[in-house]
Every structure is written in C-alpha cells, then in structure tokens.
Amino acid sequence: MLDVQERPAAGAVEAPAWHRKDLLDTDVLSRAEVELVMETADAMLEVRSRPVGKVATLRGATVVTLFYEQSTRTRASFEVAAKAMGADVVNLTASGSSVEKGESLIDTVRTLEAIGADLLVMRHGKSGAPYLAARHTKAGVINGGDGTHAHPTQALLDLYTMRRHLGGLEGKRVVIVGDVLHSRVARSNIWTLLTAGADVTLCGPATLLPRTLASAGGEHGRVTLTANLDEAMADADVVMALRIQKERQATGLIPSLREYINVYQVNAARAAKAKPGALIMHPGPMNEGIEIAPDIAHGVDSVIEEQVANGVAVRMAVLYLMATARTK
After folding, report:
1. Domain with 162 in it: what CATH number?
2. Which residues contact 311 (CB under 8 A, 6 or more apart)?
3. b or e along 316-325 (b: 16 or more beta carbons within 10 Å of the residue's beta carbon)?
4. CB burial readout 75-108, b (16+ within 10 A) else e
5. Which pTM value belongs to this model?
6. 93-136 residue pLDDT tens
7. Which candidate, 163, 180, 122, 116, places its Cα nearest to that of 279?
8. Domain span holding position 142
9. Looking at the structure, do residues 189 and 144 belong to the same domain, yes or no?
10. Are residues 215 and 288 in the same domain?
11. Is the pLDDT of residue 4 over 50?
C-alpha cells in the first residue's frame, strides 16, 4: 500500500479526481483533468522552493524508469521528481538488460511488476509500445515518449510554463514550427493546447506537416497549418521551435539544412513579428543555429530553461495523482 497520506503542500487538492491507471497521451484528458495536473503542479513547485524541497508522499512506492531510447531531460526529471517525494527509484535501459538477450516487452513489464514496481515510466522507439505494456501490467504506466506518437508529460509541462506567464490560454496563439510530422511532443501539445482553449498554428515545410491535423480542433481551440513562418509569427503569444533531425535531409524531406535555416529558423527578425514579450520555447534538445538562433534561445523572452525546471514539478504532480488513484 502506498503511503500518500502526507499532502505535498498547503492548499493541495485533498481528494484528487484522478482515476486513470495510466497516462499514455493527452488526447484523452478532460479540461478538468488538465486543470487538476496544473493545480497539483503549483503545490509541487512550492515544495521545490522549500529549503529541503522534499516530502514523503510516495514513501513505500517503487518507480521504475524503463528507457529503450537515450534520454537526459525526461529520465532525470522523473528520477528527481520521484526521489523528491520519497519513492524508491529503479533506472533501467535496454542496453545491458535482458532485452539484449531477447526478452519481450511483455515479459519485461511482468518481471518489473513481480519485483514490486508501482509506477513504470517508459520510453520506447516504437509508437504504441507503452499501450501494450499498460495492458499487461497492474503497475501504472506513464508514457515518457513513444516513437513519433506522444509525449504527454512534456506537453503538460509546456502548458504549465505558458500558464505561469500568460495566465489562461483561452484565445492565445501558439505557433509550433519545425518537423511536426515526426514530433511526439507536438502531437501531445496540440491536444493540451486545444483543451486549454488556445489556437494552434503548425508551421514548417509541407513535407513535415501532418495533413491529418488540418481538421483538428473543437469546442475550445483550433489548428491551422501553414508553410509561411513570417505570416505564422504575426501576433503570436508563444513560439515553440522543434528540433530538426539531420536525417530528414537524407530522406529528401527538406532540400538542405541551409535552406531550412533560411526559411524556418526562429531568429530575431522573425521573433520581432510576434507579440512583444512572446514566449520562446523548445522541448529540447536544441540544435542551436539550425531551428533556433542562439541569441533567441538564450534571450530575455526564452523560457526554455524554465521548461526544464517546471518539468520536475509537473512530473511530481503526475506521479502523485497516479499513486493516489492506485490507493482508491
């Protein structure tokens, strides 16, 4: 039984309305659920601001990070978040594990459950792998990124960062520029931003824009696709650059990196077209000088480092809510 009786901070939600065993993507989250994560993250950020910065909320819980791909930010963020709440943390990678000996994903997650895993944070190169894992374990599964599909906690921390500067996102214009087609971050961000009421503009070469998202939108926000970054930047409240992978050039999806830089790099001239003080964001890791100019990445309007810091508080919130749901 997990010990979640100690509340993380004064004002934290006393009876979280969170009933999900897993967090696999943001497209299934209601506005109330997103709001709950945001409010809980506020409490966790207050915890992180204390001299010690830790609570015993997850004492007795075992959190396992299972990463089939390399990661720095996500993995370290989850580890810090879990340890800040008193959980036991086990870090596993495919390299050096039984996976190299041919063990299947299903066998791996069943083994982790048998040794006492309560929550499993998983990154995998194949889209849908965390869904498969979730069906074969009683442990709560958090998708730490799967293929080109989803990265829910990144989207939640991005939203949290925006809200801390802009307040509500209702009617705000968020521009996401780059390789949207292959970006799990962009896909999860779209759903949270629409749920929060933002209007989302996806910008990039036509070969890197998913046409299936042209009709996305609904009750709160809408999605627009464009290949013209100068037009997209006009009156933007937030500009998020995505990492461009050099292999896209090898496959012919972009003519050259030089041309991409000329047309789609977020630089000072283009940032000036956005609203004054528009937030500059990037989920990392950055290719400075390619998708974003160094002076913009580290400029006064950049919140990129803040995204990383907020990631710990948001992941603490997710771990807390999921652990609480497991005790009901």
Report:
1. 3.40.50.1370
2. 73, 74, 77, 153, 154, 157
3. bbbbbbbbbb
4. bebbbbbbebbbbbbbebbbeeeebeeeeebeeb
5. 0.91
6. 876 555 655 578 999 999 999 999 999 999 999 999 999 999 99
7. 163
8. 31-151+309-326
9. no
10. yes
11. no
